[in-house]
């Protein structure tokens, strides 16, 4: 079985046991202050919508985030750090109790098996696809294609081709990439210290954080 860690740069070891868990989106969560990108999957972004098999609108990004929240709610969450990606996030194999979170998300049709990096959940995905669960209920643009498309369009309209919006609000310094559901209604006022970023790593190093959905 082929297993590759997503954008692995620095190897780590040892589990972390959760006291506090915050859901960032369908494949990212904060565990006791450490951000983990769940290894082997890619979930719909919060702003993604699609049509069901009956042609009805479905906010699949929100559904994926809610699914991750449901899987982890009331459970002891453990993440084994496998590596650190280029954004400073730990790539983690995460469990809610004894449940493999990545496998549960793919089984529910709430995330794609990220086959570019790992085929560990390919069999689980095939079952979910055959059963038309979640993202397999209708036509669904993969999250990586959705992000790339949004990024290209926003880059053409933003200053110096840097499309990430660094907003300052009562909730703190929050950055919005082009696929954020709040992106279009966020306005940048540089006189207030708000700014544009060229990538997420730059925003994180400057003290901004990604929005949390839960």
Question: Which short descriptors sum up this protein?
Answer:
15 strands; eight-stranded mixed beta sheet; disordered N terminus; three-stranded antiparallel beta sheet; alpha+beta; about 210 residues; single chain; 5 helices
Note the run of SSEs as H and E. Answer: EEEEEEEEHEEEHEHHEEEH
Supply the number of helical segments. Answer: 5
- SS strand fraction: 25-35%
Low-confidence stretches: 2-13
Estimate the mean pLDDT confidence: 86
Distance between the termini: 34 Å
What would the principal axes of the Cα set say about the shape?
globular
Structural class: alpha+beta
**Over the alpha carbons, how many angstroms does the gyration radius reach?**
17 Å
Largest sheet: 8 strands, mixed
Helix content class: 10-25%
The tally of beta strands, per DSSP, is 15
